[in-house]
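Feature request, filed as a ticket because there's no other form

It would be nice if the structure record came with a short human-readable summary line next to the tokens. Right now we just get the raw output. Example of a typical job, pasted below so the devs can see what we mean:
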Amino acid sequence: MSEENLREHRRVHVVWRAVFRPKGSTHNIRGKTSDLSMGGVAAYFESQLQVGQLGTLYLEVVKHGVLNKQFLEIECAVVYSTLVGHINAFRTGIKFKAVNPEFVTILNKLM
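Raw output as currently delivered:
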């Protein structure tokens, strides 16, 4: 059975700017998304995040051109974070704690 068949939610490839802010902190860690689903996101961040770390993920959603941007805020937890040496970034898996109806609408349009 393939890994895709084991996933709870279907994933879609999107490259959006992202910021992770650890709970209780004002420090922002910048990154870019890779794969997105209703349950979470895989993204590349400039710093390694701690597994289990709670925080807020901010996504810059680009719709129909650069001038039409929207920002989403999602409470989440870090599942994994591992160095990808050839690009000097940390591939990070993030699980969403809850998603708002606006996010669901945006993601359904991508599917």
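Something like this underneath would help us a lot:
The chain has a mean pLDDT of 87.
The longest strand covers residues 69-84.
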